[in-house]
Design a protein that fits this description.
about 30% helix; Trp Operon Repressor, Chain A; Alpha/beta knot; alpha/beta; binds adenine
């Protein structure tokens, strides 16, 4: 899968070169390109923002450098990228979004700052036949300083679903929220050695070697934990 990320703080995306996703990049499973939006500015000050029409606080990102950047990045290939615009006003990014996107050949993330990107950018690329749609998405109901951290969250959630990225292939299917288990349950607690730690014991059933009982116990724990942690929130 190809992933491009455009930002005025390209260094902010550095952690994507580390750990699980970094290895997927090194192995070629993810072809990652990080771009500086200011490379597509046209003035001496490399301006990317302007005051909002209609007044109000803060600055709005101009569609001009964004349009040039996105056109250049898509280039002349036949492949249609999906444009992802992280924004607190977007549709919620959830595990099923990650699952869907993991089957896509090419995602381009446009990370806005300030009060966001001029709305015509999404409007234009939505109608542009060279692109496979625009997703304006939020990772949660809080406001970050920019789209970079949100893009990293989404790249990690999508990247770990790609074939060969997780060491243990079953773990993605076993996750909390995974759309191919019972649907809405979060995972229950997990334990490793030592068997007794600070007086606290590992649940007996996990030591029993009785696989059916263990499966049953884990399902019940997932149910309990979902009720405990999510009953108010959902
Ligand atoms: N940019 C700022 N806040 C955001 C959020 N919660 N999700 C996605 N992008 C954002």
């Amino acid at each position: 899968m190809r992933i491009d990320i455009v930002s005025i703080f390209p260094d902010y995306l550095g952690p994507l070169r580390l750990s699980l996703i970094g290895k997927a990049v090194d192995s070629g499973t993810i072809e990652l390109h990080i771009h500086d939006l200011r490379d597509w500015t046209a003035d001496r000050h490399r301006t990317v923002d302007d005051t909002p029409y209609g007044g109000g606080p803060g600055m709005v990102m101009s569609p001009e450098p964004w349009g040039r950047a996105l056109d250049d990045i898509r280039g002349t290939t036949d492949l249609k990228p999906k444009l992802v615009i992280p924004t607190p006003s977007g549709a919620r990014f959830v595990q099923s979004t990650a699952q869907q996107w993991s089957a896509h050949p090419w995602l381009v993330f446009a990370c806005g700052r300030y009060e966001g990107i001029d709305a015509r950018l999404a409007q234009f690329y939505h109608a542009d036949q060279h692109w496979d749609g625009v997703a304006e998405v939020s990772i949660g109901d809080y406001v970050l300083a920019g789209g970079e951290v949100a893009a990293m969250v989404m790249v990690e959630a999508v990247g770990r679903l790609l074939p060969g990225v997780l060491g243990n292939e079953v773990s993605a299917a076993d996750d909390s929220f995974s759309i191919d288990d019972s649907g809405e349950l979060v995972e229950g607690p997990v334990f490793t050695r030592p068997q007794i730690w600070r007086g606290l014991e590992v649940p007996e059933v996990l030591l029993s070697g009785h696989h059916a009982h263990i499966v049953q116990w884990r399902a019940a724990q997932a149910q309990d934990r979902t009720e405990q942690m999510r009953s108010v929130d959902r």
